[in-house]
Design brief:
Length: 81
């Protein structure tokens, strides 16, 4: 019931007889870029170090801001007495 029906005599695919209007463009070889594993490791290590430094600066800035708010609050309470 669900079996495919094939044609009685298969016809071969038509051959291409058309010629291109324009000649094929000249392809120049792409220069090969070789990157050593040492260079990749150096870039990754530099990225890790810079990220760690940025995180340290951010944590320090946040802690200094919190300390300033706490000190300001303590000094304000002391002046009211």
């Amino acid at each position: 019931m669900f079996l495919p029906k094939y044609p009685d005599s298969p016809t071969p695919p038509p051959a291409h007889t058309r010629t291109p209007a324009d000649p094929a463009p000249v392809r120049r070889p792409v220069p090969q870029i070789s990157i050593s594993t040492g260079a990749v490791a150096a870039v990754l290590a530099g990225g890790v170090v810079l990220t760690a430094l940025l995180a340290a600066v951010a944590v320090t800035a946040i802690s200094v801001a919190i300390a300033a708010v706490v000190l300001r609050s303590m000094l304000r309470d002391q002046q009211r007495r």
